[in-house]
Amino acid sequence: MSRPYWVLDTGALMAYAHGVPAVGEALVEVADAMGLVDVPLVCLLEAYSLLDHTEHEYLAMLRRNDTVRVTSPALRVDQADDCPMIGGLARHTGRLGAGHAAYTALASGAGVVTSRADQIRKVLGEGWPMLEV
After folding, report:
1. Which residues on neighbouring strands pair with residue 8, listed in sequence order?
2. How many helices (H) and strands (E) does the chain have?
3. Is 58 in a helix, a strand, or coil?
4. Average pLDDT, stretch 71-77?
5. Tens digits of residue pLDDT in 29-42
6. What does the alpha-carbon distance between residue 46 and residue 36 come to, in Å, rounded to a whole number?
7. Angle at 21 between CA 15 and CA 23, to 5 degrees
8. Running DSSP on this structure, what letter comes out for residue 54?
9. Strands 111-114 and 68-71, how do they pair?
10. Are 15 and 50 a contacting pair, CB within 8 Å?
11. pTM summary value
12. What residues contact 114, with CB distance under 8 A and at least 6 apart?
């Protein structure tokens, strides 16, 4: 599996749905480099819950993009899985989606596209690559 260039958190997904150019520009740059962008499942669900149903098509279009892949946590109750780490990061970031985005970025070494860099920096630090939208 290829390493993603960026992880889009809930705020980035909302920004995309609301037409913020920086998100689309980042996607174009990654597509031009034949790379990938990860969307954590929890962030996708949060974005759907925050958008009006008339805006859901924007996320559907994003999900159809070959550059974008939705990532789910590993769920293996009797073995090591991602849930405890995502939950722990969420406790520090203040949001479950931010915790999942931070975990996805940390696990893959990718930067984060976010509207709340302050939340992500609480766990990834000041030097982590971020694009604030």
Report:
1. 113
2. 7, 5
3. helix
4. 80
5. 999 999 999 999 99
6. 21
7. 55
8. G
9. unpaired
10. no
11. 0.93
12. 9, 11, 12, 98, 101, 120, 130, 131, 132, 133
